[in-house]
Amino acid sequence: MDLYLPDAEKQEALKQDERVGQHLTKCADELSKGELRYFELLLLLHLDVKFLLLDEPFSGIEPLYVERIEELLQVHRSTKGFIITDHDYHSVLRISSSLILLADGCCRRIRHIGELAQWGYIPANALG
User: Fold this and answer.
1) Which backbone phi and psi does 37 adopt, to 5 degrees?
2) Which part of the chain is the ATPase AAA-type core domain (predicted)?
3) What architecture is the 8-97 domain classified under in CATH?
4) Contact (CB, 8 A) for 52 and 80
């Protein structure tokens, strides 16, 4: 934490997180992928930056941590902007205010979920 957050108050806030406190004596390789991803995201969210680029924050993460990551992003969306690339479109749809599909070398603004099927990103029957 010291490397990323030199501010002692931010370090303490991170340590007080109920999902982090129990792991403070562990090494990174002792954490599950979800625990590690959650901790990494917390570190990033406490940086003094206005935007974060998150590459596949939901990839390979167990559902419990997907929900926790979604919650974190919702809490911080008033103070930070996020650019998220991920194939887990369900999570992305739940937390996004704007969607852009990158396909065939083009960026396409997605105004409704049906357009994801129209552009071949998801099968039409996925919309149920």
Assistant:
1) -65, -40
2) 27-79
3) 3-Layer(aba) Sandwich (3.40)
4) yes
